[in-house]
Amino acid sequence: MSKKSCELIKDLLPLYVDDVCSEESRKMVTEHLASCGNCRDELNKMKTELNITEKADKDIKAFRKIKRRLLVGKIIAALVGAFLIFQVCGALMINWVNTFVPVNYVKYDLGNHVTVEEDEDGKVWLVKTGAASAEGTVNYFVRPSGSDIRVKGPYLSKSDESMSPLAEGVKDADKVDLVMNIVEPKYQHFFDRYNMLIYRSNSVLTMQTERTLIADLNTPNEKGAYSKLNAVYYYDIDNDEEHLLWEKK
């Protein structure tokens, strides 16, 4: 075979391998390959390279699929992780804002906003004015009069004074003292801190009053505690101090 013929065939081989040459060219290449070993070797080499290229393309496509799956998996894992973190943070936040804290007697000037009064009918009232009237839950604790019993931490929240926690010896005591404090959720405590400043600076707002019945001295409850009520104290838990609000005359 002439060198010129081989060069022509080699130019046609890529089209021949890809099966895009004309029928006449295909016939010519086939006849040439039958009698030319060099061109056959070139054809085999070309087919091998094509197979390698096709295999590489398949591997790349497979790798891309795996990569996409891994990416989707990472996104899902990130979303699940973010959701769990949100749930945990949400639960911690709810627990935090709903945690009750005692109101500091001195810091919030409760001496001018929280008092106890006895009316002509023998009823003892807790009177809260100004910002104090908007603050949280009032809790009570009953103990024998003159006792120095302390309750560390906020008292149990009770809506009915007849259910206030009683210290040991109350039933047998001749006189009893009622110790109280105000507790409120932390979120409310945060806002009340600033409300106090507003109420202190505005004499009109300080006229707001809230009255709560503490005890009826003429109508003892089922435990017989309040008919013997002698004094009412505010217990400032932060400073571990008691402040006398009312004493029976």
Provide tags for this entry:
249 residues, alpha+beta, three-stranded antiparallel beta sheet, 8 strands
Beta content: 15-25%
**What is the global morphology?**
rod-shaped
Q: Give the total of beta strands.
A: 8
- In N-to-C order, the SSE pattern is HHHEEEEEHEEE
The percent range for helix content is 40-55%
Q: What's the end-to-end separation, in Å?
A: 136 Å
Largest sheet composition = 5 strands, mixed
Runs with pLDDT <50, length 5+? 153-163, 197-206
**Total of helices:** 4
- How would you classify the helix and strand content by structural class? alpha+beta
Mean pLDDT: 75
Give the gist of this structure.
The protein is of the alpha+beta class. It has helices at residues 3-17, 23-35, 37-97, 186-201, and strands at residues 100-102, 114-118, 123-129, 137-144, 176-185, 209-216, 229-236, 241-247.
